[in-house]
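Priority: medium. Attachment 1 of 2:
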């Protein structure tokens, strides 16, 4: 497809993306016959996912359904198992046990087919930093089997939308942490995936860029995409997401709509209540300056 895309900040872009991925995915589902429940499978369905590293159980039998078309936040303290869970849910890490289905299709028995529908922003994974921003995003598109004209047009659109146009020809090794995050996000979006899984996408990103990314993601969800995002910023998750799961010790402590999980309080208060305060500064008396 060699035609020019509308700008990603333009609603038409996301309509177009919907047409690119699968027309039917973004149309309102046909009414089911009377008396029958709708049959749309969850975008991501996790059952009994388990992973250990030596003695450490990182993910202890997690089950979770992410409804199609939802904006799903994953929150949890450091070391809770979020990255390990998301890596297994996206085919980056093989689980010791359990299953993952993406849009009803088993991930590990249909790995290549399923991966085509996923856009992934892994946390802390090495990237090809000897490429320029343009080369990296172009490479991601060509790797997905897209034709060069479409890749070129979309690369330019995405770099502009993520405020990277002026650094497009700079090597990624010379990017700041936030710029690297944004170029990796562009690479995750290039093939217009149905499901986006973003591990801490706002980390190191300045507030203006973060607001811009939020806008892009919100529009993506509005036009039928599903986003799963892990974050430590409760306020952001409360404002941006419609669903949330609280993970700690490799288990889900609470999951559902944001309003159900926070139960009338702020998500941050609810999070602290669920996870518990485990540290005090009492042992650091020597740090006091007065
Ligand atoms: N490759 C690995 N080898 C050994 N232990 C690991 C490995 N990956 C993760 N772990 C351990 O598994 C647990 C869960 O780690 P994980 O990175 O999934 O947590 P997280 O919730 O993403 O944390 P953070 O919020 O700090 O990014 C931690 O105790 C971590 O030390």
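Attachment 2 of 2:
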């Amino acid at each position: 497809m060699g035609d020019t895309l509308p700008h990603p900040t333009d609603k038409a872009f996301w309509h177009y993306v919907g047409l690119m991925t699968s027309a039917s995915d973004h149309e309102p589902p046909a009414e089911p016959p009377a008396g029958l429940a709708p049959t749309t499978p969850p975008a991501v369905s996790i059952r009994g996912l388990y992973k250990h590293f030596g003695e450490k159980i990182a993910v202890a039998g997690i089950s979770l359904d992410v409804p199609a078309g939802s904006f799903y936040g994953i929150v949890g303290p450091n070391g809770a198992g979020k990255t390990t869970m998301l890596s297994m849910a996206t085919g980056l890490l093989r689980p010791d046990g359990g299953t993952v289905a993406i849009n009803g299709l088993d991930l590990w028995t249909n790995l290549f087919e399923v991966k085509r529908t996923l856009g992934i922003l892994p946390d802390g994974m090495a990237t090809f930093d000897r490429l320029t921003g343009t080369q990296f995003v172009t490479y991601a598109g060509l790797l997905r089997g897209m034709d060069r004209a479409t890749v070129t047009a979309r690369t330019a659109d995405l770099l502009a939308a993520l405020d990277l146009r002026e650094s497009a020809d700079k090597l990624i090794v010379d990017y700041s942490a936030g710029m690297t995050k944004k170029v990796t996000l562009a690479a995750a979006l290039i093939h217009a995936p149905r499901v986006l899984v973003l591990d801490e996408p706002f980390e190191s990103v300045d507030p203006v860029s973060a607001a811009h990314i939020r806008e892009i993601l919100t529009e993506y969800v509005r036009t039928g995409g599903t986003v799963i995002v892990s974050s430590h910023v409760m306020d952001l998750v409360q404002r941006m997401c419609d669903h949330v799961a609280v993970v700690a010790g490799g288990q889900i402590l609470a999951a559902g709509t944001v309003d159900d999980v926070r139960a009338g309080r702020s998500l941050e208060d609810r999070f602290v209540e669920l996870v518990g305060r485990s540290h005090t500064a009492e042992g650091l008396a020597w740090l006091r300056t007065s």
